[in-house]
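Sample intake sheet
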Amino acid sequence: MLTEILFYAFAAVLIGAAIGVITSRNPVHSVLFLVLCFFNSAVLWLLIEAEFLAIVLVLVYVGAVMVLFLFVVMMLDINIEKLREGFVRNAPLGVLIALIVVIELYYVLWVKRLGVDVTGGVAPLPEGYSNTQAVGAVLYTEYVYPFQLAAVVLLIAIVAAISLTMRKRPGLKTQDVAAQVAVRREDRVRLVKVAPEEEK
């Protein structure tokens, strides 16, 4: 009973945060709403006893990927007014995708009509079972190549984000490290000998 209450509470917060991601006018606020989504998703993972996946979701997505998203959004000069110009043009496609998602949710939420028994709940795990070991065994045997490919894609995304922030812009002040290292005392400090004033 307590598990169901926690599930519905965190699921409601998750849905509200997801709506905030797509309706927020400020891109930084959207990223923060997405962080809240990930935290609530991690709690839902905990409720089904998948502790490893929950902590990975917090560490990897909230601790690394979302921080990267936040820095990219804050460093890029996003013209919000220009982004809003295409809202009306893309609205029909958005409505169509939303209808497809609603239909899929309908079939998922009413699985009893498909003959699936959902009243039994989650099957209890045997003593000494480790979902971390099970995930690792599958990840590094059957899916080792997709796992490495995902790492390469993330590396390319990081390099692309850095290159976007380093583009040439008028009035942008850049740091010349070589000039700073090669500076001499004579270039910055000038000693002036002042004659002492005579006492009257």
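Comment: The chain has nine helices and no strands. The first helix runs from residue 2 to 23.
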